[in-house]
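Possible regression after last week's pipeline update?

I re-ran a chain I had predicted before the update to compare outputs. Posting the input and the new output here so someone can diff against the archived version. Not blocking, just want to make sure nothing changed silently.
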Amino acid sequence: MIVITAPTGQIGGRLLDILLKEAPSRGEELRVVLRDPAKLPEAVRARVDVVTGSHDDAEVVDRAFTGADAVFWLVPPAPPRTPSLDAAYSGFTGAAAKAFTAHGVGHVVGVSALGRGTPVADRAGHVTASLAMDDLIASTGVAYRALANPTFMDNLLWQVSSIRDHGVFTGTVAADRKAPVAATRDIAAAAAGLLLDRSWTGTGEVPVLGPEDLSANDMAHVMSDVLGRPVRYERQSLDDFRAALTGQGAGDAVVEGYVDMMRSKDAGLDDGVRRTAGTASPTAFRRWCEEVLKPAVQA
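New output (post-update):
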């Protein structure tokens, strides 16, 4: 039995699609945990066991992990008014960590971030909290793999309107700073591989780096070419970024966490892992733009 949390999100939804195709031939049953089962298509609900509720709830994870061999663990975005990022990550995971042990779950795959071992990892906001969550899960003794991810290509979808209407996307890092960037579908594929082939033991990270490092200017060039229109990058100051988040209703912990994370990314947070055949995920940014961004801009 494989349990999937957050099965309707960018990563969890793609993971569920992969497992629905591949798990039956391997004799694997699937169970999902979500607040609203109606968000899953009826045809999908008919093929999985559904546990209704939030996966930070002790009673919910007790039901979800009964008989489970493996769990895909993804913490949802921090609530805007969370008192701390520790509460949003390790606090959210506390009940599950106890349930992994109580139910003898053998393997857990979690969504995390790059940065461990870098000089700025201890003051990187959401990333620091995510790495602490990894440590909590690893401390239970379960076999654990943290998917160590850079910035998602798919985050650009939040700026589709600006790209379409103004030919502009924004960020806080230097325009010429090159860094890894990954497609969420590749993260889902990495998770599926680990969940289906559970021959691994112990704890560790699995970086998902994409095939190349890119700067914001590099991405603007690719987007311009694929979309057939000029697209440029505008760097936003951290003060303006902070003001924008505050204006959207985010509380102090979330705002400062994002600011610290973006400051750390500009200082090399994502630079600590070398790209190899094992860490380079396949989807190139150009291909992602052709298959995902362009249809979204044209919609």
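Follow-up from reviewer: compared with the archived run. The mean pLDDT is 97. Marking as no regression found.
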